[in-house]
Write a structure and sequence with these properties.
By secondary structure, chain A is an alpha/beta fold. The first copy, chain A, is built from 18 helices and ten strands.
């Protein structure tokens, strides 16, 4: 079975094998805590065995719900924020094409409730006006401000277009099993629903219905995605594959050696939103108690002409983790040109990806020479299977890494601070005291 | 005249007014160096007086060339990388809508040559097959690998579709005035051309034909864009407006106080690529000699549910600069709901942007309370005029800031390192020795 691989040889100029291995006892302990639930945040370990525990029946139910939307809709809007947005977006973008086209026969996949942009919502509604659209609304409580606003607007628009009864058949709710505003509404209106389990946090939810339903609606094979994750789960938990452990130990060794920023690098524009998903996974898991590696990302070779100078020669507080995709989906060869004014004939007949691979290798050598440790995460291709492996790899490594850092990787107390202030400023009922306090500061 | 404003009161918990003012003599000197050309990199100061020196005749010529493409093309591909990509992309995205729609009557604007993604090029060519498309190719030399590959492929495709003679009328080259591969080709083929002046570096080129032509093709008012930049140029150079100076001094004071990362923040999805443009401008100008602030960016409130936790509570080595857009283009009000299950009726009748503004204010208070200094850059709206002001503001501040840091803000020696390695690995003629050397290391 092919699997993604991690190569750490190009960090060894900065941290030694001994530095990294010194973390193994802690890392072994961290992995044990993840499997036996004895570490911090143990209420949120539902993701650890999720791939193997996901039933065929659930996957079939998701595919049936997806097919219903695919059949009746030209566009489907996924409403959610944070983990209820990034996982689906990342996988759909990775499997799709960058011109925004979905596979033949699939509806256009749109996102809402991931921001509060008034113009964004206006443009989105104009884009949907008069079209056959459906909604997947994702919220544990149903009251998170961003998605709740978007859902009010789009539900109302859909009901005006097709009537309340018909709209109810085009709305799927992914929410708490029993309680909350969205569960109540779904029961009243008779929406098809899927459950957000209590023990899986948002940023670990891409392999639950939260991510799987939008991915299935877009036309991708969620069984293969889960199967890939299952391969990595089994390999990681049995110790047959140490790549998650290696990645977690290495990045912590680099952090302890003063490398404050990790840049996740891709050479494939399709991975842009995968990088964004990774930033949430690691930033929200580790950025607490005034510590944690700052997660950043670049899309190369685009950003070699943007952040490249800084990476090559700025402060030496960074390291890079490069996702390297071995095989591309399509073949494009560089044509020959009789005039050769651009001097490119030395590349004629080569595949574009051969040049990209040499850009990647040339960059790695240049950056390592410049004092930037590089890890390399190699995957065979951007398929459902290997994306499933990559997702589980990063999730497992994140849990281990958070424990190595000494934080609870499964909470996000800092996300509440802006919300409380916002509610106070908006004079939300129940926030009267907070409103008075914050207004006196302005 | 309305102008963008900078507010620094929320950094004063970290650096005092005195700390900032201590930099004024150096900053005054830096500004003088920019205007009299006595500082480092003085060969690249063409951008300083560019807005006032841009002639009406050039703008009219650009508009005429744009109108020709608009008339004959359903899609126009802009080929360029780095500064030959990001400026146009940033302005077009800021003025456009996030569903990818261009103004009525405008062609679809696409980009190529900003990466070496084989699948990206394949998907792009499939997207263009059989359609009436034009090309704007932007390269000083005409031999930069990424755009040269894309241009070979797309030129060949266009010539196959419409014939060589017709293709020549649909290609515009923006290149060196006299020399280089693209200039030679343009002369031979009779392409319409515009000049990249020697004294304006790529990342400062958005207000030259490099940025202006694509922006005009997309249907936006380049005269208003240049007029806005001119307002800021005159105000900055006469000392009537100190905002660029203030921003430069403040961020350097914060850097000297140990804040290693600047996060440019927006609350408007349209500004995502403006943030990317800013990252190139500052990263490439300052990231050298093992120093410089690391430029990062977030799109809020989206990223409050991703990077928000880290910003609130991670290592205290960051500060934020928030671009706050006062007025939105469209009005969307939150509807009332008789059931109010989502509890949002306290917001019913309010504009979506009122909620967004309270998210912004609530976040600023939370982050400042959490130890993250905040600057605020306020602009009236996302119009050509104010984007022109903002561009010049950031460019001027970048020049001043680079001199305060003690680097040459106008070179980018580090960008060459990966290129040399790549050429050696690809066995480019002339690199025989380097090829031997690099292969012996593998």
């Amino acid at each position: 079975m092919e699997k993604i691989q991690v190569d750490i040889k190009d960090v060894l100029q900065t941290v030694s094998k001994a530095d990294i291995e010194a973390l193994r006892p802690e890392a072994d302990e961290a992995l044990a805590k993840l499997t036996d639930g004895t570490g911090l945040g143990a209420d949120f370990l539902g993701w650890v065995k999720l791939p193997t525990e996901t039933s065929e029946a659930l996957l079939n139910d998701l595919i049936a719900a997806a097919n219903n939307l695919r059949e009746h809709c030209d566009a489907v809007v996924c409403i959610g924020i944070g983990g209820s947005y990034l996982g689906a977006k990342a996988v759909i973008a990775a499997l799709g094409n960058q011109l925004g086209t979905t596979p033949a026969g699939s509806p256009e996949i749109l996102f809402a409730g991931q921001n509060i942009g008034e113009d964004y919502l206006y443009d989105l509604m104009e884009h949907l006006r008069g079209r056959r659209f459906g909604i997947i609304v994702i919220s544990k409580s149903g009251t998170t401000t961003e998605p709740a606003i978007a859902f009010r607007l789009l539900k109302s628009m859909l009901e005006q277009q097709v009537g309340r009864e018909e709209a109810a058949k085009l709305i799927v709710a992914i929410t708490d099993a029993h309680k909350g505003a969205l569960r109540s509404l779904a029961t009243t209106e008779g929406y098809k629903t899927f459950v957000i389990e209590d023990n899986v946090g948002g940023r670990f939810s891409v392999l639950t219905p939260v991510g799987l339903l939008p991915i299935a609606v877009a036309g991708y094979d969620i069984k293969a995605l889960v199967a890939g994750a299952r391969e990595m789960e089994q390999a990681t938990l049995t110790g047959a594959d140490n790549s998650a452990m290696t990645y977690a130990m290495t990045r912590n060794a680099l952090y302890r050696a003063g490398k404050k920023i990790e840049i996740l690098v891709n050479y494939n524009p399709n991975l842009h939103f995968f990088n964004e998903w990774w930033k949430q996974l690691y930033g929200e898991s580790e950025g607490k108690d005034h510590k944690g590696i700052f997660p950043a990302a670049v899309d190369n070779s685009t950003d070699l002409h943007s952040m490249g100078q800084w990476i090559q020669d700025g402060e030496r507080i960074i390291f890079e983790s490069v996702i390297s995709v071995r095989d591309q989906r399509h073949e494009v060869r560089i044509p020959t040109d009789s005039d050769n004014l651009d001097g490119l004939n030395y590349l004629a007949g080569k595949r574009v990806d051969e040049v990209n691979k040499m850009a990647e290798l040339g960059t790695r050598i240049a950056h390592v020479d410049g004092g930037v440790p590089n890890m390399r995460i190699v995957m065979p291709r951007l398929s459902e299977q290997f994306l499933g492996q990559l997702i589980y790899f990063f999730e497992a490594a994140c849990g281990i890494s958070g424990y190595l850092l000494g934080v609870n990787p499964f909470n996000q107390p800092g996300v509440e601070a802006y919300k409380s202030n916002m509610f106070a400023l908006l004079e939300k009922p129940g926030y009267e005291e907070a409103t008075k306090a914050i207004k006196s500061r302005l």
